[in-house]
Protein: Two component, sigma54 specific, transcriptional regulator, Fis family
Organism: Paraburkholderia phytofirmans
Amino acid sequence: MAHILVVDDDDGFREGLVETLVDLGHSVEEASSGEQALGILTNAAVPFTCMFLDFRLPGMDGLAILEALQTTVHGPTLPVVMLTGFASSDNTIGAMTLGAFDHLTKPVGRQAIQSLLERIVSSTAAGATSDEPLPKFAAEPASTKPRLLGVSETLREVQKQIGRAASSDATVLLSGETGTGKEVAAHVLHDASKRRDKPFVAVNCAAIPSELLESELFGHVKGAFTGASADRAGCFAAADGGTLLLDEVGDMPLPMQAKLLRVIQERQITPLGSSRVIPVDIRLVAATHRDLKAMVEAGEFREDLLYRLNIIPIELPPLRERLADILPLAEHFLAEVAIRRSRGMRLSSPAQRLLLGYAWPGNVRELRNAIERAGALAPGPSITAEDLGFLNAKPNDGQPLLNASFFDMSLPGAVEAVERAMISHALRLADNNRADAARRLGISRQTLYAKLAALKLE
């Protein structure tokens, strides 16, 4: 049974709402003004479960009461349902910004009230016992540095490999699916090495046009190409003495791979447009989500470069193979959201089950984004399964992998249809960022451009 405060100056509506709530089995107190409501809240011996608050009231209006609630004993964590007969974008946004649980337009049906109260009770149940931040990894001290957090055996093995690799300057190749934390692992490796006080420089080879990549890596002199108005040091020079991460090295064009191989062998760079040779002292770390050995067989990656990069291989496991880490990571990310929202937040039991049952194709990055989204939009202190419902809102859930019509097509036609659907889907997920879409598809940007043109998806 919930303990509810109803605040409305319309006697008829207020009495009708109170009657409905009592009929549903709840205890109700009522007020006809904001001032009266604040007095009831301040002197309440038993905390209220929630409050139904009219937007237009004599004296203080609903938004003013929402602001004043922050100074009452029970107010800061009290779920408030705003009621109005004249919904507008301003009063809706204003109410939600001030922390209202929901914003409803009069009249409100019995079923809607019952469903809303069920949501309120479920969202507050897990977070009602404490306002303290969620516990983080027990053995992890607070830190602003990048960390590979996890207690699963698979991640513990990665942590051990990084620790061993940190004692040398050998080149490291980090592999793993998108979102598994390859750049974080590179940061951790650098921080654990003797180069920790020197620069850490990361460059995404897939995000830089091929014609600019050489300048980005090796630098250029004034006049080397149109637009080169001044000398510029590249990433190799910027990382001198420290660590250079070549992220998505599998997307590097073949001509650039040959130049990189020479630099790795000689530890010297020549800026674009110059004959001056500059020695560099770096720890090289490469990262990729692609299968470089398969690319070598397909003629898309140099075999000799792979040998040079693959001195110490470390593979980051996907999150679905780290089940023991999912909930601790989710709680860690939620604790960060709770600090920003200045309120205690919890994961409800149904939400935890949902997180454990989800496949996490985007791995740790997707988990973090999901928790940040749910934590920012959740109306109550507890993250419920409904708050995470977007994880299961996949358009093809429960559908067969192949439509029956595929079997009536010719093989080239079916292949074209699959390519068209997969490319379109990847572009939607990547917000039309073609470099990101290519990474999701496991192909190079050049291959994606060629397929876009062939399929007339431009």
